[in-house]
UniProtKB/TrEMBL annotation:
Lineage start: Bacteria, Pseudomonadati, Pseudomonadota, Gammaproteobacteria, Chromatiales
InterPro entries registered for this protein in UniProt: BFD-associated_ferredoxin, BFD-like_2Fe2S-bd_dom, BFD-like_2Fe2S-bd_dom_sf
UniProt cofactor(s): [2Fe-2S] cluster
Name of this protein: Bacterioferritin-associated ferredoxin
Domain BFD-like [2Fe-2S]-binding: 2-50
Pfam families the record matches: Fer2_BFD
Family: Belongs to the Bfd family.
Keywords on record: 2Fe-2S, Electron transport, Iron, Iron-sulfur, Metal-binding, Transport
MF terms (GO), sorted A to Z: 2 iron, 2 sulfur cluster binding; metal ion binding
Keyword Iron included in the entry's annotation: yes
Length: 73
């Protein structure tokens, strides 16, 4: 599904970015251009990011090492 319509970023792209090492919204902004136009997508993007971090055993959160996703203010 499209998470960021302005920049055509999908949940699959976010999950792939997490598998490639992304672990924060800033990583997604830099790598995918997410949230750079209107920002409406950021709450949904954070939700997808959190889920992807939990699902991926290669990430700090997925490995149970207490990784966190900072909230966007």
């Amino acid at each position: 599904m499209y998470v960021c319509v302005c920049n055509a970023v999908t949940d699959r792209q976010i999950r792939a970015a997490v598998r490639a090492g992304a672990s924060s919204l800033n990583d997604l902004r830099e790598g995918l251009g997410l949230g750079g136009t209107c920002g409406t997508c950021l709450p949904c993007a954070a939700e997808v990011l959190r889920a992807a971090l939990r699902e991926d055993p290669g990430t700090a959160a997925g490995a149970g090492q207490g990784g966190t996703v900072p909230a966007f203010a």
